[in-house]
Amino acid sequence: MPPDSLLEVRDLHVAYGAGVRALQGVSLHVRPGEVVALIGSNGAGKTSLVNLISGLLQPDSGRIVFRGEDVTNQSVQDRIKGGIARSFQIVNLFDELTVVDNVALSIFAREGKTRWFFTLADHYGAIWDEANDILHQFGLDLKAQQLAGGISQGERKLLDVAVAYALKPRLLFLDEPTSGVSTREKAPIMDVISSIVRSNRITAVVIEHDMDIIFKYSDRIVVMHQGLILASGTPEEIRSNESVKDAVFGPTHA
To answer: Structure pTM?
Structure first.
């Protein structure tokens, strides 16, 4: 693994069902503190790659090295403990719990105390203090006592990231953090997320279809196409890459 890498993926292959090859020898590395965008058309292999790194899927071959350790066969829970967290495109919250309870539950899980959440929760004031501090960082403190099912879609997106952030990750995957929200909400949401990620020196990998968001907030863009890495570079390099234009952007971003 390159000495400056936090994550390295080595020659990953995975196929589904009757020989549908989702990844065909993907290799990449991510440096500490980077904000990397992972883009590509539907079926390019982005979600499969993230599922492999986060432990939801096992590769047919290849290795995943995180912080110098081979985590290829580790469970999702062990990867979370090691510092890998993920927000989801389809927001995965407990709608019947309050906003602050959702964040607190994530902290309880981080501390290995989930089973005490509904019985001794009142005795862990420090956890609620931390949960409320996280909500303040995400601009959700005024929503703390509302049920998660009753807040707006943009607020749910922020809360979903806050829940992942509460796990104290070193590597945070953000899966479509602005999907399903209005155009005017996208930049404010990304401003909050980007500020928190960068101020806490969290390495982030963002899957996102909005190219304006990608070019504005990413340090580096990795382009996938048909289960392969097509290109990797700065936003300026990717914007001027002719093969990327043909495969992903089309005439809009030419």
So the answer is: 0.88
pLDDT tens per residue, range 124-148: 778 889 999 999 999 999 999 999 9
Assess contact for 38 and 224: CB atoms under 8 A: yes
Q: Which residues contact 148 (CB under 8 A, 6 or more apart)?
A: 93, 94, 95, 96, 97, 98, 99, 101, 102, 156, 159
Helix H or strand E segment including 231: strand 228-233
Q: Is 228 exposed, middle or buried (0-12, 13-18, 19+ CB in 10 A)?
A: middle
Q: Are 176 and 89 a contacting pair, CB within 8 Å?
A: yes
In 3D, which of 209, 232, 241 has the Cα closest to residue 89? 209
The structure tokens 């303040």 sit at 136
Amino acid in the structure at residue 216? K
**Among 13, 7, 42, 43, residue whose Cα is nearest residue 28:** 7
